[in-house]
Amino acid sequence: MSMRFEQVSVRFGRTQVLHEVSLEVPDGSIMGLVGESGSGKSTLARAAVGLVPVSTGRVLVDGVPAGRRSGVQMVFQDPYSSLDPRMSIGESIAEAIPGRTSKSERAGEVARLLRLVHLDPGRAGQRPGSLSGGQRQRVALARALAGRPQVLIADEITSALDVSVQGAVLNLVREMQRELGLSMLFISHNLAVVRYVADTVAVMSHGHIVEHGPAADVLENPSHRYTQELLAAVPGGTSNTLTKET
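RE: above sequence
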């Protein structure tokens, strides 16, 4: 399932944050969206799931306005605030499962989802406060997958994590995308992270898409000056921070 932004603009009061953004997240692939803080990346993500009103334009999922069908889920940046501390992680995941199912069926689905994100199903009764940041982000991913999305939006999901656990979460993202055939919009300011996970890359600056294309082309031979400046600002380039597993 693909997601397409058609001439999407967002305005907050007198400030226009997005300027007629057109972008397509191809079916079954990961589109990386990169740019500096304040470039409009997260606003575009929130517009896609209805958390921010679109001033003009529209967001389509397989040709249908996104608001008219489910199938899009979002994972947020901060794993510490994305889960209700009063609920067990199993309850948080079960809450997101659509339809009416029995208690035993929900428990079975929670266990399946926890295994999918490489967490012990026996931890379902624990509260988020007993988990590390990386474990909480895995639970947030499991909760998003509980909604059975065909498009997943990941907004800076590793930026709040220690460097030591970022790679494990990124490997999990790539594994889930391959196994489930998800289309994914992966947002990050970190070029190395985007290069690690993305098939295609779009670069955003001041609410505009200034460059997009295959990840290797954009990040190894950028045509836009802004992209060139982003790459020049990365110590040692983007190639030696993370190495893809095959």
